[in-house]
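Q: I'm building a small set of examples for a reading group on sequence design. Run inverse folding on the following structure and report the sequence directly after it, with nothing in between.
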């Protein structure tokens, strides 16, 4: 990914504005291990830094972080031969208080609203289609080279594949004709351990129940029913986006797949139908998203689920950017524009 010029930008011209959120103490980016009994953070055991740190500017002699919150700035990559740089916005720029540059970090701690803004400006002419680069600074580059040299893959990396990658190569999320493997088939050919299947279904009630806020009924130990009994949505099954938006999703295990694919009223192939068991509270892992938790003593089996009502997602916090070994380091703001009043280390 990167930021590319969509127009000619002359030397000194504005590439993108960069209003910033000021964070007085960069320790706010620290993450900590949790006490397994209480769930409280143990501030003596730092586990890493938050991902947003990579998109903030810092300085080696200050606790202050400046985090731009405009989308173009997040895509501008590093180069030792940049064609752009950051400067302070003009005094007339909205939400930029030039007088703050003369105040110390203690003053900034008292400011609850945003009040500073950077500009990304071209250091030479930039042609349409050309990628924009800034220099993240020597400290950042040194940390990156050290990280690359020492990096080792996580222990379970061989059994990991992002859901987006798998959807394109194996599951074909956009191609509903590719069959999903059942749990028995997964014994011989498992999916990566970081994935979880979700079944979208407006279960456990009728339209009347929904109006009376009685959609979720926990009265029976075993529920076994046809998906269509509870999902009377005209044309819904052919729109995966609507399924994710308007119906609850439950972590589920696929236990059966129809031998033949099904067809809509116009004769279009819409993929296989499935049977699935919804996971109960003892089976739902902490890193699975569950809108409603099914009690442990209940069993819910749904038959005849359309392919569009089943989605695959990464388990929460399992993606590359959440790994403890992921690179975390602020970009370095140039010394020549960093206020002396902010130096506190």
């Amino acid at each position: 990914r990167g930021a590319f010029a969509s127009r000619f930008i002359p030397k000194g011209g504005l590439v993108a504005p960069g209003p910033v959120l000021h964070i007085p103490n960069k320790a706010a980016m620290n993450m900590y291990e949790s006490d397994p009994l209480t769930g409280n953070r143990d501030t003596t055991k730092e586990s890493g830094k938050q991902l947003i740190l990579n998109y903030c500017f810092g300085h080696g002699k200050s606790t202050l972080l400046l985090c731009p919150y405009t989308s173009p700035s997040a895509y501008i990559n590093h180069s030792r031969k940049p064609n752009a740089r950051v400067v302070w916005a003009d005094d007339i720029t909205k939400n930029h208080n030039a007088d703050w540059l003369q105040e110390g970090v203690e003053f900034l701690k008292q400011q609850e609203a945003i009040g500073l803004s950077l500009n990304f400006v071209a250091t030479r002419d930039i042609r349409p289609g050309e990628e924009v680069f800034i220099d993240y600074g020597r400290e950042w580059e040194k940390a990156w080279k050290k990280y690359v040299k020492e990096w080792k893959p996580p222990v379970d990396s061989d059994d990991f594949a992002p859901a987006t990658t798998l959807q394109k190569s194996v599951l074909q999320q956009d191609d509903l004709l590719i069959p999903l493997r059942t749990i028995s088939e997964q014994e011989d050919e498992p999916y990566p351990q970081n994935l979880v299947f979700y079944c979208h279904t407006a279960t456990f009630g009728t339209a009347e129940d929904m109006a009376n806020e009685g959609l979720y009924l926990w009265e029976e130990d075993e529920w076994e029913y046809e998906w269509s009994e509870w999902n009377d949505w005209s044309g819904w099954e052919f729109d995966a986006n609507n399924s994710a938006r308007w119906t609850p999703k439950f972590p589920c295990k696929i236990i059966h797949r129809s031998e033949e694919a099904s067809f809509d009223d116009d004769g279009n192939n819409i993929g296989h139908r499935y049977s699935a068991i919804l996971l109960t509270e003892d089976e739902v892992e902490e890193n699975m998203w569950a809108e409603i938790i099914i009690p442990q003593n209940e069993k819910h089996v749904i038959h005849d689920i359309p392919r569009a009502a089943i989605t695959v997602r990464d388990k929460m916090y399992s993606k590359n950017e959440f790994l403890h070994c992921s690179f975390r380091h602020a970009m370095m703001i140039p010394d020549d524009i960093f206020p002396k009043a902010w130096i506190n280390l």
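The CA atoms of residues 161 and 192 lie 6 Å apart.
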